[in-house]
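Bit of a strange request maybe. I'm writing a small parser for structure token strings and I need a real example to test against, not something I typed by hand. Could someone generate the tokens for this chain?
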Amino acid sequence: MYQNHLCLLTLLKLDIFFFVGYAIQLITLMPGGGSNSIIEFTIAIPISVLMLVFGFRGLHKENKVAMAIFLTACVLSGPYFILRFVQIFSPVPPGALDPYSNSRKFLTFFISTTVFLLIVTLGYSIVQFKNFGHGLRKAREEAKTKHADQRPLEHVAVEVDAEERDLGSSKIEETRWTID
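Reply from user aminoacidic:
Good idea to test on real output. This should exercise your parser:
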């Protein structure tokens, strides 16, 4: 249960990178920026960040409402990315400038990766949503206390015979770090 929690946290972090990366590429890789891409950029960044905040918050606090909003946003963002994917590969009328000629490969990679991560994140989110109230919070607390109870490295003083080290007849003290 706790391992799924950690996997979902990692997936959410990857989602942030790919969602924001896609939005930035959409505006910077298209020639002239395009007025539609600027509008889409100003809407996509805040909505994707807000969606992921709901995901992080819902997961951390085991808030079913926030997690339900996140799950709904994930389901609704899937068709958007599929639509953008279709638009990127739709044929351009003869004589018209292809707006994706220089950025098609990058946008395809980011959209494909984002859709894949979205599906995996959705699956893990549903599993975690079902685990709310069934010991997930307790498992997180146990993991925190387990790591807090681990002893740090101890400093141990060891006397070394100086003759063994060809340093004369006096005793020296050598310090070593040990792990128990």
